[in-house]
Amino acid sequence: MPDQDAIYPSLKGRSVFVTGGASGIGAEIVRAFARQGARVGFVDINPKAGAAMLDEIGHAHAFAACDLRDIDALKEAFAALAEKIGAAQVLVNNAASDDRHDWREVTAEYWDDRTNTNLRHMFFAIQTVAPAMIAAGRGSIINMGSNSWWEAGGGFPAYATSKAAVHGLTRTMARDLGRHRIRVNTVVPGWVMTERQKELWATPEALERQREKQCLPDLIAPHYLAKMVLFLASDDAAMCTANNYMVEAGSI
Prior knowledge:
Helix content is about 45%, strand content about 15%. The protein has helices spanning about 25-35, 45-55, 70-85, 110-135, 155-180, 195-200, 205-215, 220-235, and strands spanning about 15-20, 40-45, 60-65, 90-95, 140-145, 180-190, 245.
């Protein structure tokens, strides 16, 4: 059970869209916004997990099943969320998949699929919600990056390249949208102990190596990412834009 979140009065009643919100870091972000009294709409490729999350947080919120690699489907899903909870005032571009792959075996088709999974939808999600934010004269967009490329991590070149590009997307969109008081930032996770990570890669040996890399001895739970996202979405972060906010325990 996470320790208590700070309360941000500015988030109460705010309409928040989250991609990949049914599991992992995304699920903690959805829960955190719901606890703030925000109106949360989220999309996920897994309809069963999405329905379960909606049951958990309550049907005053909204869920739409969507494969974000299909941009038309993304736009339709966002329209459905807006119909239920209103146009997005906050967008959290969270959805991604860090599948491992050997650089020698990557095909052009696989590269494109990984880019579509980890990067392309972020731009089109921004493009979809930005007009309503511009009309409102404010908004907060939070893109989830990764410290994998900062650390020169290997074993997933298409993923690391996509995540490095997220930082460029954040910087350029912060410039283009800033005149409308729309803030765009990147949250940069370290190795976060989601259930997927625990099942696939978090061996005792790997965890010990990770602790040695971090300045802090504790492993990173998903709710620590949600706390940073809440801050950046709130009016407390009114002068924060175009930057990276690291949540990686000082990993080197």
